[in-house]
Amino acid sequence: MTTILLLMASNIFMTFAWYGHLKYGHDWSLGKAILISWSIALLEYCLAVPANRYGFGLFSGFQLKILQEVITLVVFIGFAILILKEKLQWNYLVAFAFLGVAAFFAFAFKSPTAIDASTHVPETHLSKSRTGQVS
Fold this sequence. Notes:
The chain has 4 helices and no strands.
């Protein structure tokens, strides 16, 4: 659940970094829009990196990416409707439904590359000797 909450928060920042200037920054120069977007994106990275670290082991790398993309789309739908005042058309709903089906297939079957979370120890907790052996 921590991974999902962090990814949701990071995607809110990401969406504002990438698309917020379309609503609020029309009078900004391109350079100013880039600098403000990068500043917001830094907050996004501060949430996305721990989300992926905590989630790796519960999810495979593929599953983490697909989860992030689904969350990105859900956050963007809300942003486009509430902030950009765009209409959600039927063809977008169909496209999102197909992406939902793709996400279902990514999570419906056990991934052969998923790491058992009970045995996964983050690398930062391991100490290496001079020979490179983990102790």
